[in-house]
Write a structure and sequence with these properties.
393 residues; Rossmann fold; nine-stranded mixed beta sheet; 12 strands; 47% helix
């Protein structure tokens, strides 16, 4: 590779290493940190390299690393990727999201991307929405509406493109014309699951599809689990919508907690096994959220507050305290004189008469001879409200 600059040599070496090291390989990450990508590839590919038995790796595993390194052809991978609209970004490049560095030696060697947006810019304002594959209609509805609300507020919705909650989250963001990114456990040119081929195409056209594995790579069970650490580290926070007690989405949430990210859960029925994992997460300190505004209040800037939750305002809520006291003193049935109300309220008769005429003009009370009673249309509501007020004192 004569004539190739050091930066390009490192990029080629990292592209090659995505075929050598499995995602989250802490041994490989330590070697990469100690030797750098170019030197590590030399140590793996040169038979006489003075590096036969690195700590923590036996001869058989080292032989497997060497075999993979010998077969790697980064120039071919990068050329084929570019022809398919795929690019490769690695640590130190302008598009690299530095929050992934929080993973330490488990940081990705590099990332393969499909889509036009800048990953670093998008990651700064992103939230993960994850959950059960076999979700309920309630879970799908919550994921879709939550993601749509986040996207409408300018946040990037990140998920794993799986069936269930992941797919609902991506669709919610896309339907609102917003931004979404899918983190895969396979090559970004591989449609997995196959049933989401169309969805992945829409995400790549409107957002980003990314992964650690080079083009053509297929998923394995361990790669799904290890993919979750990237979702957790890449985003400002993780929301779990439905998860059983052994759900992989809980791995994402707990990794987010360890990384100091916001961890949130959407509650469900106490009788649903698909909400049991979320409820355990909430008991363990995660934040309870029910809509996008509550998520943004946590992950957003100072002042991004969710609206205050209040019940419907009643006409009597607008009454001054002294007037409301007179209304409360009226019996549920029958009439009472102004003098009797004055004694009950501990105030003067003239003051009570003035309040009664105010209540009369608003339709709360009626006059009957020298007595007063609750208005027929207001009696039921006023009595219930009065009882609630007395109980709250």
């Amino acid at each position: 590779m004569s004539g190739v600059g050091e930066e390009e040599r490192e990029r080629l070496a990292r592209a090659a290493l995505t075929r050598v090291l499995e995602p989250g390989d802490a041994h490989g990450g330590r070697w990469l940190r100690e030797h750098g990508p170019t030197e590590l590839m030399r140590l793996l590919t040169e038979p006489d390299a003075p590096w036969q038995h690195p700590p923590g790796v036996g001869p058989e595993r080292l032989a497997a690393y060497r075999a993979r390194a010998a077969a790697a052809d980064p120039l071919r991978d990068l050329e084929r990727a570019a022809a398919s609209g795929i690019r490769f970004v690695c640590p130190g490049s302008a598009e690299w999201p530095t929050q992934l560095d929080d993973l330490g030696d488990e940081r990705p060697v590099g990332l393969w991307l499909r889509g036009r947006p800048n990953l670093r810019t998008w990651a700064l304002g992103s939230v993960a929405v994850v959950g059960a594959r076999a979700c309920t209609p309630y879970g799908a509805h919550m994921a879709q509406t939550l993601a749509a609300g986040l996207a409408e507020r300018g946040w990037v919705v990140v998920s794993g493109a799986a069936f269930g909650i992941d797919g609902a989250a991506h669709r919610g963001a896309l339907a609102s014309g917003g931004a979404t990114a899918a983190v895969l456990a396979c090559g970004v040119d591989v449609a997995y699951p196959r049933g989401h081929a169309g969805l992945l195409g829409r995400i790549a056209g409107q957002g980003l599809v990314l992964g650690e594995l080079p083009p053509g790579s297929h998923p394995t069970r361990s790669r799904f689990v290890l993919r979750n650490r990237v979702i957790a580290a890449l985003t400002r926070g993780t929301v779990v919508v439905e998860a059983a007690l052994r759900s992989g989405s809980l791995v994402t949430a707990r990794r987010a907690q360890r990384l100091g990210r916001f961890t949130m859960g959407v509650p469900g029925p106490a009788t649903s096994g698909l909400s049991a994992g979320v409820h355990e997460l909430l008991r363990g300190g995660a934040e309870l959220v029910t809509d996008a505004a509550e998520v943004v209040e946590l992950v957003g800037a100072i002042g991004d507050l969710a609206p205050e939750r209040r019940g419907p305002a009643l006409p009597r809520d607008l009454l001054e305290r002294d007037t409301a006291d007179v209304l409360e003193a009226l019996p549920a049935a029958g009439t009472v004189t102004a003098a009797e109300l004055a004694r009950a309220c501990g105030t003067g008769t003239d003051e009570v008469i003035g309040r009664l005429y105010e209540l009369h003009s608003l339709g709360f009370v009626e006059r009957q001879g020298d007595g007063w009673r609750l208005g027929r249309r207001k009696a039921e509501g006023a009595t219930e409200s009065a009882t609630a007020r007395r109980g709250g004192r």
